[in-house]
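Schema walkthrough. Field components (list of strings):
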Amino acid sequence: MSIIEKAANRLGQARPADAAAEATIPPAPAAAPVAEAAHAAPAAAAPAAAQAATPAAAAAPVMPTLATLQPHGDASRRTTHTVELDLMRMHESGLVTAAGGRTALVEDFRIIKRPLIKRAFAARKQGDNPGNLIMITSSLPGEGKTFCAINLAMSIAMELDHTVLLVDADVARPSVLRTLGLPAQRGLMDILLDDSVDMADVMLRTNVNTLSILPAGTSSPRATELLASHMMKNLVNEIANRYPDRIVIFDSPPLLLTSESHVLASNMGQIVMVVESERTTQHAVKESLRQLEGLSNVNLIYNKSREFPGTETYDYHYG
Ligand SMILES: Nc1ncnc2c1ncn2[C@@H]1O[C@H](COP(=O)(O)OP(=O)(O)OP(=O)(O)O)[C@@H](O)[C@H]1O
Ligand SMILES: [Mg+2]
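Field assembly_structure (string):
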């Protein structure tokens, strides 16, 4: 039985009909015992990921252009900030980068991203949310949402013909910049709290020129309320309209501890729910999927699986 089948079995009847894709990620190669699992996992995951892809054709790839990064409005008083990602440090801390070569983790995310990219630009029915808005969520804290959001963003950005915006929408406990080794900056909250702040004022370009970041921004006691607000819905729409050729990945709060995550999900075109191997209970998964009921394109990532011990170096092949 493949690891995916085992994962699906574990989730049991929790999986709704539209829980479209599943993929398995082993623990990343940060520490010595690491990327152990991966070996067989991607090959096992490949059919599931491929199967999950919507048959609709993906739109033609769009080359990243500087134009999409230009500030709107009064450009003369706006500067686009650039941050330097330390790719070697990211690689050493177990994240996907172009600097680390072809690791098991890179291969895992290559498989995970494929159906998501395909659906991001597929034709959609009237009333559907834009497929390029992808939210990463999970039932509880610590299951790997931020890890998966950053890795997915990096993996897609490495494709060159896709441009990615990574949004830290976990506004109460932001961790995207920290995980990337960067200091906190203005961001989402500042746009929501201050009408004069435009997205272009706070969006960060990076040295990976197909990747930009919208940080969570200044902390506010109203953070969770704002995330579920109509203003946030409008902002998400604005992002979708302004950057229709980008894949926008939202790192978000856990579904079971917050209600705003569920509201945010209703604005997304695709949801990726991270399930932590040997930790997330079936009950938690069922409850989370219940919260996502009615939303299309719900995908599962089975994270931190240790079922396939191996080494970090890894010969990848499609099964
Ligand atoms: N596949 C993996 N391999 C190794 N470490 C991982 C993996 N997935 C997550 N982690 C680690 O687990 C910890 C929790 O991950 P992360 O911060 O991404 O979780 P989270 O769901 O975003 O948590 P929170 O809800 O608190 O924001 C981090 O230290 C992260 O590096
Ligand atoms: Mg997180």
